[in-house]
Amino acid sequence: MKKIFTGTGVALVTPFHKYGTVDFGSLKQVVEHTISNGVDYLVVLGTTGESVTLSADEKNAVVDFVIETNNQRVPIVKGVGGNNTQDIVETIKSGSFEGIDAILSVCPYYNKPQQKGLYYHFKTIASVSPVPVILYNVPGRTGCNLQPETTLQLAKDFKNIVAIKEASGNFDQITHIIKNKPKDFTVISGDDALTLPLIALGAEGVISVVANAFPAQFSSMVNLCLKGDFVAARKIHYQLSDIIKTLFEDGSPGGIKAALQILNLAPNNLRLPVVKINKSTYLQLTNLINEYVS
Questions:
Q1: Most C-beta atoms within 10 A of its C-beta, which of 7, 50, 192, 274?
Q2: pTM to 2 decimal places
Q3: Domains (range + CATH), the chain
Q4: Which residues form the catalytic set?
Q5: Dihedral Cα 251, 80, 15, 28, nearest 10 deg
């Protein structure tokens, strides 16, 4: 299966009006901003898109809008995950995947399943998905870690499980996956700050938060890494490092939504229980962005 999920994917935000509804005008602006500035694919309904606070109708509307706006320019990955395996199966069976190139499925959260349970969870999803599956391991959010042996077994057993977004931050774990994975299986960084060293280890790209705001710069860094020019890539990495750190200071997607407001790309509105970043963090982020773009 051709590898299309290399390079820079952007975990799209879902902009909201101040009274809470989805702001499709701003969503269009962010999609155009990221595509025109070189991202390789779009990820919709991920963590950064606040998917867990969107209704089923809103999710469908957001996906349809992104597909229409994209107009087949870049691949699209749709977030389809949760902690109820059967519910995910029904969502996949009843959904349309026209214009969707893969699904991104997060490890079940809260349940804290055994590795055997995680294996069968993703086996079940892979068996019904009409498009390739990208695993998403983010134990800091889910409360469970997809162990490398489980990842590798899934990669070997199911040809349509084509990649993993690894956001464990565990270099030993990610190195083990990269070292022992099937040739056609792709390891994707799930942490902006760790993307450069992970590509040096053999990862093939990133699903990025900061690329909502700085797609040209971050995509350039990733491309330089993939070409082996780490001297030039390090320069961009360090230019963005303080901004990236500050984006996550008070939680995500609060930080990136603040950044998008500072750049006049989208309003800084979120849905509870997520709230805006603290004023001191916002001021720090404003100063860093203004210094960077000046």
A1: 192
A2: 0.97
A3: 7-230 (3.20.20.70)
A4: 136, 165
A5: 140
